[in-house]
Amino acid sequence: MQVHNLGDVPTQLSILKELKEQGRLRYIGVTTTNQRQYAELEQIMRNEPLDFIGIDYAIDNRDVETTILPLARERNIGVLVYAPFGRTRLWNRVSGREVPAWAAEFDATSWAQFFLKFVAAHPAVTAVTPATSRARNMIDNLGAAMGRLPDEAMRRRMIQTVDALPAA
Ligand SMILES: NC(=O)c1ccc[n+]([C@@H]2O[C@H](COP(=O)([O-])OP(=O)(O)OC[C@H]3O[C@@H](n4cnc5c(N)ncnc54)[C@H](OP(=O)(O)O)[C@@H]3O)[C@@H](O)[C@H]2O)c1
Fold first, then answer.
1. Helix %, strand %, coil % of the chain (to 5)
2. Centroid of ligand 1 to alpha carbon of 18 (angstroms)
3. CB 85 less than 6 A from any atom of ligand 1
4. What is the whole-number distance in angstroms between the Cα of residue 86 and the centre of ligand 1?
5. Residue 47's closest CA among 39, 57, 58, 36?
6. Chain-centre distance of CA 79, in angstroms?
7. Torsional sign, CA 158, 159, 160, 166
8. Phi then psi for 3, rounded to 5 degrees?
9. What is the residue-level pLDDT of the chain in tens, covering all 168 positions?
10. pTM as predicted
11. Which atom of ligand 1 lies closest to the CA of 133?
């Protein structure tokens, strides 16, 4: 159970903590996908007994790598990744382009798997939650849960490739 977008954290997180104490919730957390709330999120991560956070993270949206993801590791807080495609942003950027052949080195056969494996490979990430309205895309996305993940050197190559694409 999560406090969505850092809503009313003092009230809502208190309720979640109480329900967890009663054994009615297993994991409690807070979420944001708004950079203006990152500082507040960091404060909550330092001061509250969170099991997880939900945060936006994508290969072309990596601000969370600076503080939030290392802090999650340090505090043993799980990380759910939201908007791993930046909604439509990454799709606009790769439109009409083939996924690089070297993506086969980490068992990615589509851009979706390329983007999902990038975030899944970060050591702080617990789970990735791509959204889709199409069964075919869901099957494609599930492919990212199989095979190898990119290592650090490969992740840098992936970033260079995406950085060189036109802006969304
Ligand atoms: N604060 C919060 O708690 C918060 C805020 C934002 C998002 N979230 C959560 O994060 C998750 C994902 O967020 P999101 O929907 O905003 O962004 P997203 O997963 O980054 O992007 C979804 C977009 O990607 C397309 N897509 C998905 N799979 C594809 C594939 N294999 N090939 C081509 N296109 C594909 C979808 O189109 P199709 O439908 O056509 O596949 C849709 O337009 C959701 O579970 C959402 O609830 C939480």
1. 50, 10, 40
2. 31
3. yes
4. 7
5. 39
6. 7
7. positive
8. -85, 110
9. 999 999 999 999 999 999 999 999 999 999 999 999 999 999 999 999 999 999 999 999 999 999 999 999 999 999 999 999 999 999 999 999 999 999 999 999 999 999 999 999 999 999 999 999 999 999 999 999 999 999 999 999 999 999 999 998
10. 0.97
11. 39
In the block, tokens 């650090």 appear at 152
User: For ligand 1, is residue 82 a contact (CB within 6 Å)?
Assistant: yes
Distance separating alpha carbons of residues 75 and 56, to the nearest angstrom: 19
Q: Right CATH number for 2-163 from 3.30.70.1230, 3.20.20.100, 1.10.15.40, 3.20.20.360?
A: 3.20.20.100
What is the total residue count of the chain?
Answer: 168
Q: Which long-range contacts (CB under 8 A, 24 or more apart) does 23-27 make?
A: 25/1, 26/51, 27/1, 27/51, 27/52, 27/78
The token pair at 59 is: 């290969």
**How far, in Å, from the CA of 129 to the mean position of ligand 1?**
8
CA 167 / ligand 1 centre spacing (Å) = 19
Token pair of 98 as six digits:
């083939």
